[in-house]
Design goal:
The structure holds two protein chains of two kinds. Chain A is mainly α. Chain A is built from eleven helices and no strands. Chain B is built from ten helices and 14 strands. A six-stranded mixed β-sheet of chain B has the order 6-7-8-3-9-10, with helices on both faces. In chain B, a hairpin with a 2-residue loop joins strand 12 (253-257) and strand 13. Chain B is elongated. Classes of the chains: A mainly alpha, B alpha/beta. At the A-B interface, helix 1 and helix 5 of A face strand 6, helix 2 and helix 3 of B.
C-alpha cells in the first residue's frame, strides 16, 4: 500500500491474448519439423533417460579418434613400430557403430506419430506428406552426419598437431580430405537415414522397426558373404576375388561409396572387390536404395497432408 | 478475398475412391461466429472438415473457409485454421507443454513465442498445474483440453472441432462447452461438428444440418428452434375432448396426457390461439397455461432427416 492507502499493484486476469508477433510461412513450418525431430532424437527437452543413448553413442564413435591421436601424441618421441594412425576412409567404417543409434532413433522419430495418431495434428499445420518425409530423413541424416563428422574433425586436428612434419605440411598433404570426408560422411548419413526412416514407416511399433532394420543389415550381409564365398572367393582374403553378389550387403554399400570418394574405386579387399563393374554397381544399388526409400516414404505419406 | 463468411461451399461433392459419396452437391454459406455442423454418424461432417483443411480435394464444387478459397492454397490455408480431431491423437510420453509448443512451432510461430503461447493457452484451458506431466497420466477431460489448447495455440481465425465432447462425463462436457463457448469472445470462430444437438444449441449461434452428404438446413439456431414451434396447452382433465374440437377445425394437435396437449401454430398462431381459447370456454375447461414450446434441435433434426 502506498502512503495514501491506494493499492500499488493489481492482479489481472489476462484471459486470452491474440498473437500479434512474427509468423513464418511454410518454410518455417518445415524447418520447425526438422528442429523438433532433431530435439526428439537427441533427447533434448526430455528426461535424462532419453539423453543417455544418443550422447553415449556419440562418445563411443569419437573415442577411437581421441585414443588414436592420444597414443600418437604420447609416443611422439619414441614412436611405436606397429602403430599407425587411422585413415579418414577407415574412420567412416568406425561410424558404422552409429547403426545402432540409427536403429533406435529412426523408429523413435517416426513410429510414435503413427502409433499415437498424431499425424492429423501435424497435417493440420501447413505441411505436406513430402515435407514430413524430407524433415524426418533430413533430421536423422543431420544427426548421423554430425556424429560421424565430429570424430573426423578430432582425427584431423589431432593428427595435424602430432605428426612430425608439422601442421602446415600435414594440411598440404591431406587437402583432399577436406572435401572427401564431408562427401563420404554425407553419403553415409543419407543412406542410413533414408533406409531407417523408410523401414520405420512400415510399422507403428518402434521395437519392430529397429529389429527390422538390424535384421535387414545383418541378414543381407550374411547372405551376400555366403554367396560370394560359395562362388569360390577366399573369405579370408577377398583380394580381387569378390563378385557383384556382394552388392546385396546393405551394410557395405555406404562403405563402398566411401571407397569411391577416397580412392576412386572400391576397396579390393571387399565382397565386390575385383568384380567387373563393381564401382558402377555400387553407385546404382546405392541410388536405388536411397531413391526406393524416398519413393516408398512419399507413397506412404501421400494422403496425409 | 477475406470476407465475413466462416464457410462457403458451392456444389461441393466428394466421392472416396471406394465409391462412397460422402458429400453430394453441398451449397451453403454461414457467417463467422459459432457454427454447429450437425449430422448423424457418417453424414459427412468430418469429410467437410478435412475439405476445409485442404486434406482432401473435392470431386466437384468449391469450398472457402474464412474467406479463403481452399483450392487456391490448400496447404497455406491451414495457417489460419485450428483443428481438434475427434479421436485420440496425443503422444502419451510427451508433456502437454512440450506438445502444444511443438505444434505451435509447426504452425509457424518462432520457438520462444510458441512456448510462451503454449503456456498461456494451457492456463486458459485449466491445465496450468499439470502441463509439465506426461499426457499418459491425464484423464479424458484433460486430454480433450490439450487438444483444444493445441488448436488455438497459433491464434487461428477459426477452430474446427470434431465432436469436442465425445467421451466426456457430464462435468467434463460442461467444462468443454464452456471453453468452446468462450472462443467467440476471443475473436476465434468455431465450426463444431457433432451429433449431439444439445451441444450445438448450447454454444452455437448458427447451425448447418447435413444428412447423407446433403444439406438439410442452415440458419440461425434461434430461428431454427422457433421455426416449427408449438404451444403447450394445460387444462383440467379433458385434453382429449379439446383435441377433437381443435382437430375438427383443422388444427394439428398432439395429446400428451389427459391434461396436456401440444398445438401446432405454424404460420397462423393468432387464429389457432383464438381457437384454443374459445374451445376451452365452449367445453367448460379451466385453462391453466399456454406456453410457447420451443422445438429442440433433436426434434427438428429427426423431422428433417425422416
Amino acid at each position: 500500500m502506498s502512503a495514501t492507502g491506494s493499492p500499488t499493484g493489481a492482479v489481472y486476469d489476462l484471459g486470452y491474448r491474440p498473437y500479434e508477433g512474427e509468423r513464418g510461412g511454410r518454410g518455417a513450418s518445415r524447418a520447425a519439423l526438422v528442429r523438433v525431430s532433431i530435439r526428439r532424437a537427441l533427447g533434448l527437452r526430455r528426461s535424462w533417460r532419453q539423453k543417455v543413448l544418443p550422447w553415449s553413442l556419440l562418445a563411443i564413435a569419437t573415442i577411437p579418434a581421441v585414443v588414436n591421436v592420444g597414443v600418437k601424441y604420447v609416443t611422439r618421441n619414441t614412436p611405436l613400430s606397429n602403430f599407425e594412425l587411422i585413415t579418414f576412409r577407415d574412420y567412416v567404417g568406425v561410424s558404422t557403430t552409429l547403426l545402432l543409434f540409427v536403429a533406435i532413433v529412426g523408429p523413435d522419430i517416426v513410429c510414435p506419430d503413427r502409433r499415437h495418431q498424431v499425424l492429423p495434428l501435424i497435417f493440420a499445420r501447413p505441411l505436406t506428406g513430402t515435407d514430413y518425409v524430407l524433415a524426418k530423413v533430413g533430421a536423422l541424416a543431420a544427426i548421423v552426419f554430425g556424429f560421424s563428422f565430429l570424430p573426423q574433425v578430432v582425427l584431423f586436428v589431432g593428427q595435424m598437431l602430432v605428426v612430425p612434419e608439422g601442421a602446415l605440411e600435414f594440411v598440404r598433404h591431406n587437402a583432399a580430405v577436406l572435401w572427401q570426408v564431408p562427401a563420404a560422411v554425407a553419403l553415409f548419413s543419407l543412406f542410413w537415414a533414408a533406409l531407417a526412416v523408410a523401414i520405420s514407416a512400415t510399422t507403428p511399433r518402434r521395437v519392430v522397426a529397429g529389429v527390422a532394420l538390424l535384421a535387414t543389415v545383418l541378414v543381407s550381409g550374411a547372405v551376400a558373404s555366403a554367396i560370394v564365398t560359395a562362388g569360390g572367393a577366399d573369405p579370408e582374403r577377398l583380394f580381387e576375388s569378390g563378385s557383384l553378389w556382394g552388392l546385396l550387403s546393405v551394410i557395405d554399400l555406404p562403405l563402398r561409396m566411401s571407397d569411391l570418394v577416397f580412392l576412386g574405386h572400391v576397396d579390393p579387399a571387399s565382397l565386390v572387390g575385383g568384380a567387373e563393374g563393381a564401382g558402377i554397381g555400387v553407385v546404382l544399388v546405392y541410388v536405388a536404395v536411397v531413391a526406393g526409400s524416398f519413393g516408398y516414404l512419399i507413397y506412404r505419406y501421400r494422403g496425409e497432408g | 478475398m477475406v470476407d465475413d463468411l466462416l464457410l462457403r461451399t458451392e456444389g461441393l461433392s466428394l466421392r472416396y475412391p471406394s465409391g462412397t459419396l460422402a458429400l453430394d452437391g453441398l451449397t451453403v454459406e454461414v457467417p463467422r461466429g459459432s457454427v454447429g455442423l450437425v449430422g448423424a454418424n457418417g453424414a459427412g461432417k468430418t469429410t467437410l472438415l478435412r475439405l476445409a483443411l485442404g486434406q482432401l480435394r473435392p470431386t466437384a464444387g468449391t469450398i472457402e473457409i474464412v474467406g479463403r478459397a481452399v483450392a487456391d492454397d490448400p496447404i497455406g490455408v491451414r495457417a489460419h485454421i485450428g483443428f481438434m480431431p475427434e479421436h485420440d491423437c496425443l503422444p502419451l510420453d510427451q508433456t502437454a507443454a512440450d506438445l502444444v509448443a511443438t505444434l505451435g512451432e509447426l504452425a509457424g510461430l518462432p520457438s520462444r513465442a510458441a512456448r510462451q503461447r503454449a503456456s498461456e493457452v494451457l492456463d486458459l484451458v485449466g491445465l496450468d498445474e499439470s502441463r509439465f506431466r506426461p499426457i499418459g497420466g491425464y484423464s479424458t477431460g484433460m486430454r480433450q483440453r490439450v487438444k483444444l489448447a493445441q488448436a488455438i495455440v497459433a491464434d487461428p481465425e477459426v477452430v474446427l472441432l470434431d465432436e469436442p465432447t465425445a467421451g466426456l462425463d457430464p462435468i467434463g462436457r460442461e467444462e468443454m462447452l464452456g471453453l468452446v463457448g468462450r472462443l467467440a469472445g476471443f475473436g476465434i470462430s468455431t465450426l463444431v461438428a457433432t451429433h449431439l444437438l444439445d451441444d450445438v444449441q448450447r454454444v452455437c449461434d448458427h447451425v448447418v444440418m447435413i444428412d447423407g452428404g446433403t444439406l438439410r438446413h442452415a440458419g440461425a439456431t434461434e430461428a431454427l428452434v422457433h421455426r416449427t414451434g408449438a404451444v403447450r396447452v394445460e387444462v383440467d382433465e379433458g385434453a382429449t375432448r379439446l383435441a377433437q374440437l381443435l382437430g375438427a377445425a383443422g388444427v394439428d394437435v398432439a395429446v400428451i396426457d389427459d391434461a396436456t396437449l401440444d398445438v401446432r401454430i405454424d404460420g397462423d398462431d393468432g387464429r389457432v390461439l383464438d381457437l384454443v381459447r374459445d374451445g376451452t370456454d365452449d367445453l367448460g375447461l379451466a385453462l391453466h397455461a399456454m406456453t410457447t414450446r420451443r422445438t429442440s434441435l433433436d426434434e427438428l433434426f429427426l423431422e428433417e432427416t425422416r
